Amino acid sequence: MPLRQAVTRALxxxxxxxxxxxxxxxxxxxxxxxxxxGQPGGGIYQGILASLxxxxxMDAFLVRTLLVPSTAALLGRWNWWPSRHGERAEATAELExxxxxxx
Length: 103
Fold this sequence. Notes:
Blueprint: H1 3-37, H2 43-75, H3 85-95
Helix pairs in contact: 1-2
């Protein structure tokens, strides 16, 4: 299938998993930041843990669901630049006959 359609389909199938995993991980670090921050001497760790939680949320919502798919769609076949995957996929699609419909 064409790259843009493949990116859209992949995002439809994996978007909820990526988002929920990011929320769980960020929530875990957020709770740790609250618990550790209440302890004596925990101020240093509270800042680190809160920064991790915010970074994970940014990664889950901005990078993995917006930046990576849009970059892949814009780059086209250059998305596969170091490997020759893009060329092989196009070549095998031209050589293989269309699959027979299932009955």
